[in-house]
Amino acid sequence: MTQDDRSGAGPAVRNADADWDRFDPSSYVDDNYLQVRDDDRHILRVVRDFFTDAGFRRGRFGIRRGERTAVDVGTGANLYPALAMLPFVDRLVLVERGAANVAWLDRQQAEFDDNWLLFWNELTTRRPYRRVRDPRQLFRQKAHIRHDDLFRLKGRQYDLGTMFFVAESLSTKEAEFIGAMESFVGSLRQGAPFATSHMENSHGYSVHGVPFPAHAVDKAAVEDVLTRVATDVSVQRVPYGADGSLREGHEAMIVATGRAGPRAVRE
After folding, report:
1. Of the candidates 151, 202, 205, 207, the residue with the CA atom closest to the CA atom of residue 179
2. What are the Cα distances from residue 97, in Å, to 20, 90, 146, 151, 237?
3. Which region among 24-38, 101-115, 120-134, 231-245 has the lowest average model confidence (pLDDT)?
């Protein structure tokens, strides 16, 4: 799902300029995630099938020998990317910058809200998810919340990764969109499967009346960045379905899958 978008373009705003501690996760969930929209359902199914079919194997350099670690970058108030990785790893790191979002994630780790079971149910048509008896308990056991900045991610440390509606939703600057994508893919071990999603042509958004920046991207922009730093890249445009447009002037979301390549940054 995406944030509340504004039309038009204002002055340039860097990631460091935005007051992320004022992001209201409860309002964000109420606006976006109480039900599963058709577009989110499509994205979930793409990611579910990609991870299930990826031939995922244990990383060689886990925290303990043979341990698999995943990362969800910029989790915010959206648990469904993390849930999509839950059956495949031993440890799930949720990286989030905003203080209010971190507090919300702490509460969700204890017992996530019922609406997230609707998203989980979209995953259970595939065996790895269907075999999970209690997703709440498994999330509680595996999730580790890290209050940190995505631009400070260490390289080559994760075996699986997601970053949903983040890279284009933190700054108006193209360089920071590219830098966020490179930082995310660079944090994954070479060959690690990953998925990203994006809001197409967002020019900014607000959460409970607080404005936040965005950089407008399209399918080609996502492909351009990922093909430089990843392999087996697949990018799909996801038009809005029967639920209709989220915001005036918006027509689609974007979902991408691939594997971390040999280079962490562009040449």
Report:
1. 151
2. 7, 23, 8, 10, 28
3. 231-245
Q: Is 259 exposed, middle or buried (0-12, 13-18, 19+ CB in 10 A)?
A: middle
CB-based contacts of 160, cutoff 8 Å, min separation 6: 51, 56, 68, 69, 70, 71, 85, 88, 89, 188, 192, 193, 194
Is a pLDDT exceeding 90 seen at residue 260?
yes
CA distances from 239 to 43, 131, 204, 242 (A): 11, 31, 19, 10
- By the 8 A CB rule, do 178 and 215 touch? no
**Closest by Cα among 188, 260, 258, 256 to 222:** 256
pTM summary value: 0.91
* 181-186-188-189 Cα dihedral, nearest 10 degrees: 150
The token pair at 155 is: 């390289």
pLDDT of residue 199: 94
CB within 8 Å of 114: residues ≥ 6 apart? none
| Higher-scoring residue by pLDDT: 100, 20 | 100
* Cα–Cα nearest to 221, from 168, 161, 169, 172: 168
For residue 221, pLDDT over 80 is answered with: yes
What is the fold of 15-260? Rossmann fold (3.40.50)
35 burial level (CB within 10 Å; 0-12, 13-18, 19+): exposed
